[in-house]
């Protein structure tokens, strides 16, 4: 899923005050220097006599369309923040230490490492995913013949003619129930296949809008069930001409396990349930969901 795939991508921070990269406004050298240079405004909101506050505080590229007035406005809008940040404190209050709580379920009786609800939730996600992958295997791999070595016809969004290609590689570990989430969602997973077409390699989606189903055809639950998001009037795979000669066994396919243990360490149960509850309800294969999720979570999401 996107959240897991982007786990090593470090976002470059930028300052909301001076617009320079590499620091935030809490550590902005321009803000501190301008505060120190203007003691006359430390206690009174009076900026008519500001000195040293000009557009040179901004990166060179910004200075072409930012003026000295913009710098002064920036100072004014951050004045209250600067007072809180830099003005000497008259009294230091001792903060009461907050009682530790579980980052997953919120209980103060344990931490995330010892949370039974977390362990149960991972079980629910794995069983949901296993059931989804079982249905995917039956529909697309066994029935349609999808897999490495399959000969397919492909139609692009704006192409009038079909192209013929052969699937060379499929990342089967990316086939997860989160394929059904919209692509902008942090928890969505896009499964793709590498296809050789005219000597070149193209990436073809195996999940949302992956299969072509004719122009102006109504795609609905009645026709396609849970797979309705996989079909569109402009999708990529139009047909499988020749099925894959060596498809994985269903036992092996269901044995692949995704990244759920990592995800539950980064998010709490209600955040995850807000994204997954409808898919869990659709695919979870057992009748003990209320017991596994807990009555409070289950009743809040499924009984209203």
Explain this structure to me?
The chain has 304 residues and is of the alpha+beta class. It has three domains: 74 residues, no CATH class; 101 residues; 100 residues, no CATH class. The chain is 34% helix and 11% strand. It has twelve helices and seven strands. It has a five-stranded antiparallel beta sheet, with no helix packed on it. α7 links the parallel β5 and β6. The longest helix has 27 residues. It starts with a helix and ends with a helix. The model has no long low-confidence stretch (mean pLDDT 88).
**DSSP summary, beta strand count:** 7
Shape label = flat
Task: Give the integer mean of the pLDDT values.
Answer: 88
Biggest sheet strand line-up: 4-3-2-1-7
Poorly predicted runs are none
Give Rg in angstroms.
Answer: 28 Å
Class by SSE composition: alpha+beta
Main β sheet profile: 5 strands, antiparallel
- Estimated helix fraction: 25-40%
* Proportion of beta-strand residues: 5-15%
| N/C terminus separation | 29 Å
Please count the helical segments: 12
Q: Quickly count the domains.
A: 3
How do the helices and strands follow one another from N- to C-terminus? HHHHHHEEEEEHEEHHHHH
Defining traits:
alpha+beta; five-stranded antiparallel β-sheet; flat; 304 residues; 3 domains; 12 helices; two-stranded parallel ribbon
Question: Which helices and strands appear, and what pairs or packs with what?
Answer:
Layout: H1 2-5, H2 29-37, H3 60-63, H4 68-77, H5 79-86, H6 116-142, E1 151-154, E2 163-170, E3 192-197, E4 200-205, E5 211-212, H7 221-224, E6 231-232, E7 237-242, H8 250-254, H9 260-263, H10 269-283, H11 289-293, H12 295-302
Parallel strand pairs: 5-6
Antiparallel strand pairs: 1-2, 1-7, 2-3, 3-4
Helix pairs in contact: 6-10
């Amino acid at each position: 899923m996107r959240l897991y795939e982007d786990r090593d991508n470090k976002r470059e921070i930028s300052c909301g005050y001076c617009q320079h990269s590499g620091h935030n406004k809490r550590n902005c050298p321009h803000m501190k220097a301008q505060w120190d240079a203007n003691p006359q405004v430390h206690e009174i909101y009076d900026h008519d006599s500001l000195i040293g506050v000009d557009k040179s505080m901004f990166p060179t590229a910004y200075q072409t369309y930012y003026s000295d007035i913009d710098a002064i406005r920036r100072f004014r809008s951050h004045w209250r923040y600067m007072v809180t940040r830099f003005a000497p404190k008259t009294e230091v209050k001792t903060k009461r230490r907050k009682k530790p709580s579980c980052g997953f379920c919120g209980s103060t009786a344990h931490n995330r490492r010892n949370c039974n609800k977390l362990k149960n939730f991972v079980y629910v996600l794995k069983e949901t995913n296993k059931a989804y992958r079982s249905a995917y295997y039956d529909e697309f791999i066994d029935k349609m013949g999808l897999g490495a070595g399959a000969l397919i016809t492909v139609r692009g969004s704006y192409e009038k003619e079909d192209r013929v290609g052969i699937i060379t590689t499929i990342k089967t570990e990316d086939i997860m129930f989160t394929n059904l989430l919209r692509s902008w969602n942090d928890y969505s997973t896009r499964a793709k296949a590498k296809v050789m077409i005219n000597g070149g390699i193209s990436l073809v989606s195996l999940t949302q809008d992956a299969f072509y189903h004719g122009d102006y055809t109504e795609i609905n639950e009645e026709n396609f069930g849970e797979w309705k998001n996989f079909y569109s009037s402009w999708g990529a795979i139009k047909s499988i001409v020749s099925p894959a000669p060596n498809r994985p066994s269903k036992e092996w396919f269901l044995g692949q396990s995704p990244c759920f243990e990592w995800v539950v360490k980064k998010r709490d149960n209600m955040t995850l349930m807000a994204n997954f509850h409808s898919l869990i309800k659709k695919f979870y294969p057992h009748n003990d969901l209320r017991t596994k999720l807990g009555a409070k979570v289950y009743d809040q999401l499924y009984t209203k």
